[in-house]
Design goal:
The chain has 214 residues and is mainly β. It has two helices and 14 strands. The relative contact order is 0.19.
C-alpha cells in the first residue's frame, strides 16, 4: 500500500515592514548606547582650565565608569566592587555642592590620609607630595587666614571619601575650599583624550588626540 505523500510546504511567515525593522534597530542601538554610557564608558568635555596642563579647555575625554565597580546610577550605591580610587588618579564626580554639575580633579588624599598645604606645598601624612603635573601660575602667596588656596589644614580624609585638587593649583575650586568627595559621587576614572579643539585658534590639537591621561 502506497504511503500518502508528506506535505513539505511551510506556512508563509509575514515579513516585517521596513519601517518596523528600522525602528527596532534604532531602539536596540539606543538601549545599548544608554547601557554603555551608564555603566561602561562616558564622554566628557573640559570647559575650564582647572586641570592645566594635564587637560586643556576644549579637550574631550573618555571616562571608564567600570574602574571602581558598577553602581546604581540613581543613588551611587555600589552593586559590584572593582577597586577604589587611588592617589594620583584623575576622576570625574558629581560636584558636592551641586550634584547636577560634573567636576574633574586629581585624587590627592584617600580615606585615612592627613592632607595639609603650606605656602603652596602639599603634604600627605607628613610627607611632601610629589606633585607631578601640577603647576603654580601665580607667584603670590595667599595667607591661610584669608582663603585656603595656598595654606590649609591639616585635614583628615574620612572613610569612603576623597580629597581632590586640580593640577592648575592656583586656579582650581577643589577640596581645599569644599573638602571631600563621597565615593558614591565618583562617576569614574578619566583615561583617554579622543578629541581636542582649540577655540582660540580655531584649530584641532592633533597631537593630543589618543593621549592617555595620567
Amino acid at each position: 500500500m502506497e504511503a500518502p505523500p508528506l506535505h513539505t510546504e511551510s506556512a508563509e511567515v509575514p515579513r516585517k515592514s521596513v519601517l518596523r525593522e528600522y525602528v527596532e534597530a534604532i531602539g536596540i542601538a539606543l538601549i545599548l548606547a544608554l547601557f554603555i554610557r551608564t555603566f561602561v564608558v562616558q564622554a566628557f568635555k573640559i570647559p575650564s582650565g582647572s586641570m592645566i596642563p594635564t587637560l586643556l579647555v576644549g579637550d574631550h575625554i573618555l571616562v571608564n565608569k567600570f574602574s571602581y565597580g558598577i553602581k546604581n546610577p540613581l543613588t551611587g550605591t555600589l552593586w559590584l566592587p572593582a577597586g577604589e580610587p587611588q592617589r594620583g588618579e584623575v576622576v570625574v564626580f558629581k560636584f558636592p555642592q551641586n550634584p547636577d554639575q560634573d567636576f574633574i580633579k586629581r585624587v590627592v588624599g584617600i580615606p585615612g590620609d592627613t592632607v595639609q598645604g603650606i605656602d603652596k606645598k602639599v603634604y600627605v601624612n607628613g610627607k611632601e607630595l610629589a606633585d607631578g603635573p601640577a603647576v603654580h601660575l601665580d607667584p603670590q602667596l595667599i595667607p591661610g587666614g584669608i582663603q585656603p588656596r595656598d595654606t590649609f589644614g591639616p585635614i583628615t580624609v574620612p572613610p569612603h571619601a576623597l580629597f581632590v585638587m586640580g593640577d592648575n593649583r592656583d586656579n582650581s575650586h577643589d577640596s581645599r575650599f569644599w573638602q571631600f568627595v563621597d565615593f558614591r559621587a565618583v562617576k569614574g576614572k578619566a583615561f583617554m583624550l579622543y578629541w581636542s579643539w582649540d577655540s582660540d585658534n580655531f584649530a584641532v590639537r592633533w597631537n593630543r588626540i589618543g593621549n592617555l591621561i595620567h
